[in-house]
Amino acid sequence: MQTNKIPVIAIDGPSASGKGTVAQLVARKLGFHYLDSGALYRLVALKTIQLHADTQNPGAAAEIAIHLNVFFKDEHIYLDDIIVTDAIRTEQCGIVASQLAAYPQVRAALTERQRAFRQLPGLVADGRDMGSVIFPDAVLKIYLTASAEVRAQRRHKQLIEKGMSANIADLLQDIQKRDERDSNRSIAPLQQGIDAKLLDTTSLTISQAQDAVLSWYNDVLAKTRV
Ligand code: DC
Question: Stretch 10-22: mean pLDDT, rounded?
């Protein structure tokens, strides 16, 4: 089957919106593959930090992105054969990832790696530019968001559950700063595409958000059948 015939559900949105959780649940329900594109930017950030490389140097960051030795298996992410599933979730990694993600060279270096996840029977991809740049022919595009306050509370809960320390006021400030940087960069900025459906999860449970995505996907399937 031609790659461009393999269905993709693109779920884009801001940091800590819960899009990762919803995307993973939808992928599991449909038996689809799952791409956490933010993890790739976080991996480039982690490697940059480990190498003490200059985060202001787009060329150096792109080199790191090109040669990234990463492997996804089950729930785990390996960098140079070491499990970094939790290590990439720190706020420091998120902040550096957001800085490096503004460099066109870094984005270009990660494009094909992301497209390689498009495999049968289908893919649910989450990030910032899944529908606009990486998979413009996705059958369903969703912009999943929630208020900054609710996102700070969700990130707080997530970090505490992982045994990491966190403070809601600091998290809220980081989220607002990151939103601003991700939305205002010149390349692939975070924004709702005109062809993307808005899913505001501020007052929705995870299961309600999951049902909304599945119901839209069923509509897509029903339309392609007629
Ligand atoms: O989704 P996340 O918080 O794990 O993403 C970390 C950073 O990576 C985020 O601040 C912006 C960047 N990112 C991006 O620019 N494009 C993507 N498709 C995914 C993430």
Answer: 92
